[in-house]
Specification:
Length: 512
Amino acid sequence: MEKVYIFDTTLRDGEQAPGFSMTVEEKLQMAHQLAKLGVDVIEAGFAVASKGDFEAIKLISEEVDGPIICSLSRAVERDIEVSAQALKSAKRKRIHTFIATSEIHMKYKLRMSEEEVLERIKKAVSYARKFVEDVEFSCEDATRSRREFLYKAIETAIKNGATVINIPDTVGYAIPQEFEKLIEDILNNVPNIDKVILSVHCHDDLGLAVANSLSAIRKGVRQVECTVNGIGERAGNASLEEIVMALKVRKDFFGELYTDINTKEIYKTSRLLCRITGSFVPPNKAIVGDNAFAHESGIHQHGVLSHPLTYEIMRPEDVGFPVSKIVLGKHSGRHALRRRLEELGFEVSEERLNEIFEKFKELADKKKEIYEEDIEALLYQEFHSGEEPVKVLKFQVQTGEGMFPTATVEVLFEGQRKRATSTGNGPVDATVKAIEKALSLHPKLIDYSIKALTPNTDAQAEARVVLEYEGYRASGRGVDTDVIRASVKAYTDALNRALLRKEYVRKIKGEV
Ligand SMILES: [Zn+2]
């Protein structure tokens, strides 16, 4: 068995991408989760780049145990010194230094000759070794570098103490077969290459980052640089979860290769990053997208229910995915409906199932996709007049610079109008607190998210709320051009569902 080392650069390359910046505390939280996930190396930042990067590397070095903590540095003394300082408290540490080796970069960016670049590699790597045992060297833009010079650069880095050599496809230009050949050539032409671990770092500009990384692994690369959800510069980096699962699911193809990743932590790690950055993965994203394990067609659904592996190459629980999420549609059959009802906690007789199935088919003809909420609604219809238990009649919010956000609400609950005022951390918080106060109900908020449906300031906002009331969990959704109104709608929607559900369950149990 041979190990493939997972070098995670979510906090460096990933964080560098527009819209993905994180605070020092957020980086620390993410680093703890990466350690739980079992990555071998955490590239925590580019120490000299900013005070925030330095602080984050320092804090992660002090507090996160397990993985090697790494800091990026250009091939200059000052960068290396600052990296070494930031990494001081780490139990296991690595300095990662790099310089470009392609003609276009050397000529226009560095304005240096090949000889000058070799001299810089020599100095930088040996200087880094003065501070740490473990030094990684990257030839920036390797895929566009002149071969003979690339071999020379790698050989020089190894001679001067590099322990890991990284081959980045910096601009996401390589094609798998070509990249494979490059790795093969490096292994055949660099005399001292057996003294180091060979690594790759691929970008996804042509959508080939994962494919390129996997083909390099096949040729003998034993470290891959990657990020959670594939975030990173431009189109992003190779996605950690896709590489890890490809190696695991296709063991038959890759042979005796393994990683130390605890794959059950993948989903959690992915969602933590989404929550921190406020940037969600598309529903069709491999491994972690909302639809990654959703089966819609009736034939597929029946297959999966009889034996999951009929249509699933891996089990959702392997990556910590909550459940095999079957979205019901008009192609779904009775089996899937029964299973979904059971998952929602409703056991029904055969006769009752048939009744519900008829109604379900009617609804499915009108609506393309049927969600949990729709099925619940079908069940409730029969005993409920259709009136919602809670209605927000009015609300007013005051917020601004230098004042406490304050909300006043008027709600209708059990036939009575009730009013309350509350302050909060923000306008949404104040409003929700005022509603709870007016109702004298205190549901537990599990999740809250808001996103714009279109990219303008007058966009429709979509709020989603998940809450739990006396053990009854429900989700709600609200759409409005006003973010507070969207949030209030989502909140009352979720609360009403939880209340109805409680009432329904008590009714079928004969408690009321
Ligand atoms: Zn990169």
